Structures are given as structure tokens and as C-alpha cells.
């Protein structure tokens, strides 16, 4: 391709100058990521962590349902699930009926549920609360994530932590190190542009700046992304959008295609990519109105994506060392509102999944009658969950990266 034409295209696309810097510094092409494997056998033996963020504040009481508690039914008569609807886990708690796959994983002892997880002095702002969860710092704002600080401490290369979300989460940002952001979406080109022509833009031109060359190479990488996702084989299992109205966008973050993101995680794990931490997300959990419809729609996506992923991971040695943690920025109020929904609350359950996980309940279910101004009182500090993950999965000292960590480890991951 003529160099002048190529440069004009890049200028029009905003990938020169600052645009090239942004694409080149935090963006890591998917095929570039796959090349990092180099067939290294050690990559298959390092445990991997997949963090699944449910943006918007997932209602924990309609996730892990206290179906036997009269206070639950009294507080939300229209939203509460009847005992016969819940998928019973024991004689008091059950899963939402839209989570049958997770129930199967529970029966197979591959799902651990940490009850009542929160942090001191809860903040009901989506953005401040998510900042607290991703920084693991409830006492004051900090500009690093707990994974980012681990990247700093280990002097990790950029491919060590990867987000398959459209935007790099603060979770992966350290002071001197930062994770990579690899969007699953691919590049959609207008019908009047030939995809092969755009792919040709990825070939470097002699003498061009390195950042510009790297940014341009991302185009060829993005065009191939859709095919890679299809090959991974997970996306077809997502529920049909016609099953229920899609939950409205709330501006609270997250993405809408968890299966597509996990497809890329699958490809990387099975290829032996040395990434240790993956970040993916599902948004839309700000259920102020018509909660049953919206939350069940999202849960069908979560259930299909998570059960397919955990089942596939169990087939390989590398996959059996993958641990998945599912969390949200806060739970919801105990009492339903007047719009068949729930408002911002506090504590909620954290799910931990994988072949190496010791399934069962951890922590204590919060009381529905002993409340803090109508909200649940947390029974487990979230730093205990993340500290356990740092220790058991990433082989790191939690006290080095989590301020206020008190040395409490939860045994949902046995010592290796």
C-alpha cells in the first residue's frame, strides 16, 4: 500500500501521536498475546486467576436466596422467590432459579460461596464502591489496583495481567506496571471497505515511529478477533436475546458479552500464554425497577458462560489450575422499593469457581432483622477474599499488597 495513503488512513483513524501512544502502551494485540506462549511448559503449571466483575450492584439476596427466612419474604413480597422456586443448596439457602448450571457446579463441589462480603463504612455510590473493591482500599482513595500493586511488586511484564473489556479497569493499574487491555469486539469495517485492505495496514512501513507501527498493527489483529472468538466455541451457548428484554444500560460499567470474553481467556489458557490474571465483566445489575426480569436475563448469560468455561477448563491440566472469582460493588437493600426493584445496599455473596476449589459455604449469612439502617451487616471483609486469592493463586504475601489485611485466609482454595 502506498505509504502516503497509509499515513492518511492512520491520521484519520487517530492512531498517530497521542492515539498511537494510547493504543501502543495499554493495548496488546490478541495474536501478539498468543505469541507470548512460546510453548513454554512452565506456563501450564502457574495457577491463573479470572476476575469477573458484575457492574451495577448485584442483588445478593436474590442470588443466594434465603428462601426459609420469613423476613426475606416479608421485606420483598413481590420479588422474593418461593421455597419451591429456589435451587436448594441446604435447608436455608438456595440459588436463583436462573442459575441451574451453577447449581450443578455446587453439587460437584466446584463452587464456593462466600457469604456476606463487604467492607467497613459502606459507600453506596457505584463508582466509589467499585473503586474500593478494585483498589482493596476502603479507608481512602488510592490510584492503584490490588492486582496492579502485585504487578509492581513482581516487576511483571505487561502480558501478566490482561483485561478483555473495552476499557482497562483500575484493578490492573500499578505505579510502575500496568496490565494490558485487549478488547474482544474486533474491528467492524463499513461495507464499502475491503477487510483485506485494512488488514494490509498492519504491515509496517520502513522508518515509521514504533508506536505508530504498533497501533497500525492492531487493525489486522482486530479484524481477526471475531473468527478467534467463534473458534473458541463458547459464544454460541449464550442465551437468545429474544428470551427476555435486555437489561437497560445504566452507565455503571461492564460489558454485555461475558461468553465472548471468556472465549478469549479459554484460548489463552489452552495456548499456554503466561498471563496470570484475566479481568472480564458483565454489566447491567443496577436493578432499581423490574428486577426479576432484568436480573434473571443477566443470570442466564452468567450461568451459561460460567458453567461452559469451568467445564472446559476442567479438561486440561492448565485449566484445572484456573480459579474464577465473581463479585459486584455492593448488594441491594433488603426491602424492595415501589418499582419492583431494589436500591443500593451493602454486603453480598462472592462466588469462587474452579476444578481446584473446595466447594461449600464460607462466612456467615447476614441477618435480615439485625440491620444497619435497613442494610445488611457484612460478616466477611472483602480483603479476606482477595488476600486468600493472592496467597493461594498468585503465591504472594497479601499484607504486601492489601492495606489493612489481617492475615485471615479462607480455605476455599486448598494449599498447593
TrEMBL record:
InterPro entries: DUF1501, TAT_signal. Residues 234-253 are annotated as: Disordered. Pfam families: DUF1501. Residues 238-250 have a biased composition (Low complexity). PANTHER family: BLL7424 PROTEIN, DUF1501 DOMAIN-CONTAINING PROTEIN. This is DUF1501 domain-containing protein.
Amino acid at each position: 500500500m502506498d505509504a502516503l495513503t497509509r499515513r492518511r488512513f492512520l491520521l484519520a483513524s487517530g492512531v498517530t501521536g497521542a492515539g498511537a501512544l494510547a493504543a501502543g502502551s495499554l493495548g496488546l494485540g490478541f495474536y501478539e498475546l498468543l505469541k507470548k506462549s512460546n510453548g513454554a511448559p512452565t506456563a501450564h503449571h502457574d495457577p491463573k486467576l479470572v476476575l469477573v466483575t458484575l457492574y451495577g450492584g448485584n442483588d445478593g439476596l436474590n442470588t443466594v436466596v434465603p428462601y426459609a427466612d420469613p423476613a426475606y419474604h416479608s421485606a420483598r413480597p413481590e420479588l422474593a422467590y418461593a421455597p419451591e422456586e429456589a435451587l436448594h443448596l441446604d435447608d436455608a439457602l438456595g440459588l436463583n432459579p436462573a442459575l441451574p448450571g451453577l447449581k450443578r457446579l455446587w453439587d460437584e463441589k466446584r463452587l464456593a460461596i462466600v457469604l456476606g462480603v463487604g467492607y467497613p463504612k459502606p459507600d453506596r455510590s457505584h463508582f466509589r464502591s467499585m473503586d474500593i473493591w478494585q483498589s482493596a482500599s476502603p479507608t481512602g482513595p488510592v490510584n492503584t489496583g490490588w492486582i496492579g500493586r502485585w504487578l509492581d511488586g513482581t516487576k511483571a511484564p505487561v502480558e501478566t495481567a490482561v483485561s478483555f473489556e473495552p476499557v482497562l479497569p483500575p484493578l490492573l493499574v500499578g505505579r510502575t506496571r500496568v496490565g494490558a487491555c485487549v478488547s474482544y469486539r474486533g474491528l467492524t469495517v463499513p461495507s464499502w471497505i475491503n477487510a483485506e485492505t485494512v488488514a494490509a495496514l498492519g504491515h509496517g512501513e520502513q522508518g515509521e515511529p514504533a508506536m505508530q507501527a504498533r497501533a497500525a498493527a492492531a487493525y489486522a489483529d482486530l479484524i481477526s478477533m471475531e473468527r478467534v472468538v467463534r473458534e473458541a466455541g463458547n459464544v454460541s451457548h449464550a442465551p437468545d436475546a429474544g428470551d427476555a428484554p435486555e437489561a437497560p444500560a445504566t452507565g455503571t460499567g461492564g460489558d454485555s458479552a461475558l461468553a465472548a470474553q471468556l472465549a478469549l481467556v479459554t484460548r489463552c489458557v489452552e495456548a499456554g500464554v503466561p498471563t496470570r490474571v484475566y479481568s472480564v465483566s458483565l454489566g447491567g445489575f443496577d436493578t432499581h425497577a423490574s428486577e426479576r426480569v432484568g436480573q434473571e436475563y443477566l443470570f442466564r448469560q452468567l450461568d451459561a458462560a460460567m458453567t461452559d468455561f469451568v467445564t472446559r477448563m476442567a479438561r486440561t491440566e492448565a485449566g484445572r489450575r484456573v480459579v474464577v472469582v465473581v463479585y459486584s460493588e455492593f448488594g441491594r437493600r433488603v426491602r424492595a422499593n415501589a418499582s419492583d426493584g431494589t436500591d443500593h445496599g451493602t454486603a453480598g455473596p462472592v462466588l469462587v469457581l474452579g476444578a481446584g476449589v473446595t466447594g461449600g459455604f464460607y462466612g456467615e449469612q447476614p441477618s435480615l432483622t439485625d440491620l444497619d439502617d435497613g442494610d445488611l451487616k457484612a460478616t466477611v471483609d472483602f480483603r479476606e477474599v482477595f488476600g486468600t486469592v493472592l496467597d493461594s493463586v498468585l503465591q504472594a504475601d497479601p499484607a504486601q499488597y492489601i492495606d489493612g489485611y489481617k492475615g485471615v485466609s479462607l480455605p476455599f482454595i486448598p494449599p498447593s
